[in-house]
Structures are given as structure tokens and as C-alpha cells.
Amino acid sequence: MPTLALGRNTRYHESTAIQTRTKRALTVPAQWSRVDEVHPARCRYPPTHWKRFLVNRRSFVKLLGTGAAALSVGWSASAEAHALSRPAPPQVRPAVKFHMLDSDAPIRERFRTLRDAGFDGVEFRSPNEHDTEAIVQARDETGLEVIGVVAGWKHFGSTDAETLQQSHDELRTALQDAADYGASLVLLVPETVNAEMPYDQAYHRSIEEIGKAVPRAEELGVKIGIENVWNQFLLSPLEFANYIDAFDSDHLGAYFDIGNVVKHGWPEQWIRILGDRILRLDVKGFSRDRMNERGPSAGFETDIGEGSVDWAAVRSALTDIGYEGWATAEESGGDATRMRTIATQMDRVLPTG
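The structure corresponding to this sequence follows.
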């Protein structure tokens, strides 16, 4: 019998076994080795085999003749019942990177500007020049939540002791900053693959080294979100999922950037494969046409809601996995008017309530 390795969010349609948290090899009968489609663990409706729906012509005519009246009488109630049975769209709360607001005003005033623009939350870089007490006071006075801290790009695959220690120190600082702000997550890019950093070394060493920081994250009640960026690493959603699963911790997951993946993939596919590993979303626009015409970075010269992202498909995928949480804008910044524009764009493409 064939053996298939399952991670989280994988369902065998022909059995009731659902793998949700651990990774292991399952032995299954040969006739199960071909699965028509894979649903995330949160999927509410497992498929039924298509043959069960085959109707021959005679039966079909009979059904039409005997069922027309019932259909005409019962259509309204049936449609209403069907609508009620469908999963409700998830609610996504809009947030923004603090540095996107171009302002020299006191932190409290900048918090008010972002709140009034339509955002519910904000993320800070770590380290930063701002006073922790001022951030907490602005949070409490305005109601704009501090939801995360951006630790950024690190080198957890390095074999250089000094470089590695610096990455550990910076992650530890970011975790503490998040805890001090009352934030729940730290964004982390674990490594960059290039001619000097082999892919396998980046993969295995970063798992080992970041794993050393997970107990501290758990102690502080802060999660680590691994972001997909253009670092030539974790280039497939299947690989990304396996990478997350290797840590075997509820305090580490994916910080999924919708726009970043459009260069070489389709966000809705990544969302369904990653499933409940996704802790948070980064939101930006991207245009493949601009990328092809003027180079990769030109693709980001695109507003949210424009370009190559199929936002309807993204919303559908988020509903399928039951995602409810924060979505953080990461666009070119500007003044208060620009912030209002970005918040409005997010409202148009995501179910922000």
C-alpha cells in the first residue's frame, strides 16, 4: 500500500482521519492514493463522489415532470435555507504599518490620524526610535491597537557566530517590544538564499535556530509570523507549510503577504494550502504587466484592488479556511489623505465589516 505524508489541514476524503497539528506518515489502500481535491481542515463541506449525482435521461424527464410544482412552491424556502447554510464571510480587521504615515506630529496625533483614516490597528518596526510609554499611552487614548512588530530580515541560516548572535538578539528585542506594546505577533524573514547561502542550509539551520526563540515567544504570549518575501526561500506553499509544521508550535506560523506571491504564484492557492497556519495577512497590490514591462519592482507600483491579484478568489479562499484576523496594508505611504485612500481600498477588496 502507498504511504502518504500528511501535514496540518489535510483531509482524506475516503476516510474520517484528519491531520490537524502533527505530521506523520499514513498507510492507505491503493484506491485511496488518488484524491480528487484536498480541502483545508477548516473546510465545511467534504466532497461527494460525482457518480452519485449521475441521472439518466429517463429519470431526468421524470424528475422534471413530477418536481416542477414542488420546485415552484418550495424554491423560496429552499434558497433561504441554502443561504443560511453557507459559511459566513470572515471578518478581517484593517491595520497599517506606522511608518507609512508621513508626519512629524507627536505619536498620539499620528495614532488619531490613522484611526480616523479607517484603521483598527498598527504595526511598528523593531528597533525604532519611539518611546514605549508614549506608544502605549497613544494606544490607550485613541483605541488604535498595536497589533505587531516587524523584526524584518535576519540570517538564521548563518554559520558565523557573530551574525547569528545578532539575529537572535534582534529577534529577542522584537519579541520584548511586542510584549511591551501589547502586540500579539512579530514579523520575521528568517534568511536569504543566494550564492553564499545554500538553500538547504538556510532551511535546516533557520528551523534549528529560530526554534530556540520559540519558548521565549510562548513565555511572552507573542507569536512569530514567517513572511513570504523575495528572498529566494520558501518558494512553494507546500514547502512553506512543511517549514511551519517543523516547529510544531502554536506560537509560530505564516505571515502571508498577498502581493509578494503574485510574482510567481496565485495567492488564493497559497491561502488554501497554508490554511490555519496563516496568522496574519500583509496587503498590497501587484501587476504582472508592469513587472514584465519595467522589471520586478515595478509590479508594486499598483494600488490595492488593481493589478493582477484576483481579490474575489482571495476572499473566497479566506472564507474557505475560516480566516478571521488582521490584514495590514503595506503600500507606499503619504499623508492623511493617502492613508484614507488605502483604508478605502482595503474595504473594497476584503471583508472588513
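Residues 57-85 form the longest helix (29 residues).
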